[in-house]
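Take just one protein record:
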Amino acid sequence: MSGTDPVLEEFPIEMMEDADAVAKEWIEAESSKEVKRIKKVGSSVTPLKVYNIKEKNDNISELTSLLKKKISNCGIIANFDNKRARAINRVELDTEIDLSKVQQIMVSPPVAYPHKAHFNYVNLILVTSDPVPYLAPYLYQTNVKVTQPEKEEQGRKYPSKEITLKNDLRDYLLINKNGIRSRFTIHEYHDGVLERQFEKSHFAQTSPTKKVKKLAIFDFDSTLFFSPLLSPTIWHPNLIRLATSESIYGPGWWRDIRSLDLGPMEELERNAWKGYWNEKIVADARACIADKDTMTVVLTGRRYHPFHQLIPAMLKSKGLQFDLVGLRPDPESVSEYQWQGGDDTKSAQSVSYNLTGSVFKSTMHFKTCFILNLLHKIPSLESVVMWDDRLPHVKRFKEFLDAVKRTDAIEKGQVIHVPGIRPKYNPEWEKRVITHIIQTHNKALVEYQSGKKTTGKIMERLEWTPVIEDPLSLSEKILNLAPQPAQTVIALTTSCIHNLQTSFSSLFQSQCKQNKRSKWKVFGGEEPQFFGDYVYLSQKVLSSTDITLGPVGTLVDLTILAYSVSPRIPCLLLKVQVKDQEHILPLWYKPSEFFDLFRLKDIQWQTIRSNHRSYITDIQGEINYANRLGVIETPLRIKRPLSPDNDISPIPTSRLRTTY
């Protein structure tokens, strides 16, 4: 945790002296040696130089003289705020970087300084949001003696006395060359949460003294399991953004149990969630579980609440006995209620969800702390291997493990990228879940805005009956699902769509057969679907007057010029000409990869000759908009029982969330 600290404000920046030449030379040699070692193993780090030392102050330790000069980077501040005095490690660095951005500090094992007794040296790895972490050398005194001031507690006076300052290397005061300070504490509450999680694990319960050498970590969503998301071929981009954001229409997709509510529980358990597993990664997990020298865990950003029963049941049904199921224990306990209004005056825009605060800053923060905790708990571990689907996370984890290797905590770190795969396209399920999320959010809004409740609950699981009953009447619905324009297109006629599918089907099947396992790496889950309905002019909704081919409603003729030859993702695209413009007409593709189609570069095209009888080349369409389901608002007239005159008045739509 960084920021200002009143304990430190009384200590102004003072004039510094040059460091002892022997100490400075030794530190620079140690730092250079570490940087060279890091580069040799193919990693990268930015070395930072220590600037100077702190002058003597009544509440600052007196630095031992080495060859009649002070050594660098050995400033320790005594913090007497707690019952027992603790050391704050003051490190001044020759850099202008904003040290308040430090998210994590990793400390290497201490090494005795050879030129003077009672001094240790460590490497500090400073992890920020930057791709490459920073390496800072730190030389400090181990037997600092300070005078604890006289104090009084509960009427009893304690005299001043000299004590040896305790330094567990948890508290830091980082200062850059501009004198800007930042306080960082390696918090014990992270360790406490993770310690309790570890103690409940299968590993701790069955083999706590097992000397494992390898830690195998499997991500859950889109790595081990084909987790569903909202398809851009169905939903308006604004709805996807709001539904996946936290505390808007509900807890947020990744915190909402309905995002994994895939059918009747008894049937899913009986069939072990058939069709939802990445069998290739499952096989890797089984091999790790079978290896007696490996500790195998699932590590996911899915929260302990509400997934602590569901995800273990899913793994159990598949016969996967992991040593530890690492759900983000954030929070460990939750409020009795699931939503609450902003205040008693009903002036909030909407109700809020996720009422209990978080311990960890992010999923990445949780996962890195989780790994460090296991390395601390199980010192026999020598290597870490991770499986993850998201490329940004793969990159960050590689950098993180490289930083851990630099502390000599492990010998090897590896991150395996798993192409993210969704389950089979299921528009009916998506519509069912989103409808239910909007229904429960509407109900919470009505209850709050009408003055009936300030807190409440929502039905967490779907009722798997033929129809989900909406608890509200039509007049009470604040948010409604309706088609909304999402892109500017040429909408093809029904006969053209049918003819395109018939004409190009055999070509796409041939490309699938050739590339399915090699280039496209299709191993189950979502498969390409035929659409062929729109030629996309723009991913934006252009006004009718800004469309260069003519206003909305204009009928146009199109000529098919070429088809794509096995691009990097499984799809078949056509290049079409409309007047003097060329555009893309997607035929087959995975719905989840819709936006990826328009980011493809260097597509290889095969020209279609005008006299080629196998493929149609002339089609017709109308300039229009591609509509996707989004949320619209309607004014709600509710009787407010708390109103003195009992008037019926509408709730302004400006006070409610919308996709517009």
Q: What stands out?
A: Residues 484-630 form one domain. The chain has 13 helices and 30 strands. The chain has three domains: 6-186, 211-334+358-417, 484-630.
